[in-house]
Specification:
With 225 residues, this protein is mostly helical. The chain has helices at 2-26, 29-34, 48-74, 84-106, 145-151, 155-160, 165-189, 194-210, and strands at residues 37-38, 41-42. It has a domain at 42-108 and 143-210. It comes from Rubrivivax gelatinosus.
Length: 225
Amino acid sequence: MAAALLRRELGVVLAALLPVLAWDASGLDLPLQRLLGGPEGFVWRSHWLTSTVLHQGGRALAWVIVVLLALNVVRPLLGCALTRTERLRWLLVTLAVFAVVPLLKSGSATSCPWSLAEFGGNASYVSHWRWGVADGGPGHCFPSGHATAAAAFFTGWFALRGRHPRGARRWLAATLLLTALLGAAQMARGAHYLSHVLWAAWVCWLAATVTAPRALPQPAYTGSP
């Protein structure tokens, strides 16, 4: 049963990969960024909403959630029907997923849009598929690390779905919304292309799927028919 569940979930992962690849193949990353910036750069780069609230605030919110997950191990705060072992696993898997995208970024030669010459920087546009090809900029921009600050919490869906299916659906919806919001903010600032956000979300979903528990416990009894 666990193997069959894993196959189904990997099927979902592969299905989700198709629109990501389709966007990459479209070549629309750069044209989309041109709608947001120009030779003077990106007007939203230092705006209080995108820079302070969504960029810095989003990162702070991610750490608050991690702290809550850590406290949750000691005393049930989220997913109260989960055992301590399950809550600990949720925390550790989340931290592991957080680490995946930074590892990919460390080996990436792709620079951020705001580093391109046409946006006031000194780099040339080079597709992230051209691995190891320098673009004249600082690199280390692919995939989106900031989108990962939200997408890493896909692990909550897998942690909660067995005992708290309704809570799991709400957690997943909130994670998707936050990922889209933080990703859009970084695009507006010139920090990432849409493909960077999509790949970060997909990598986090893949990592969360691979590390998810396969034996699903029964939902918690609520007393309702």
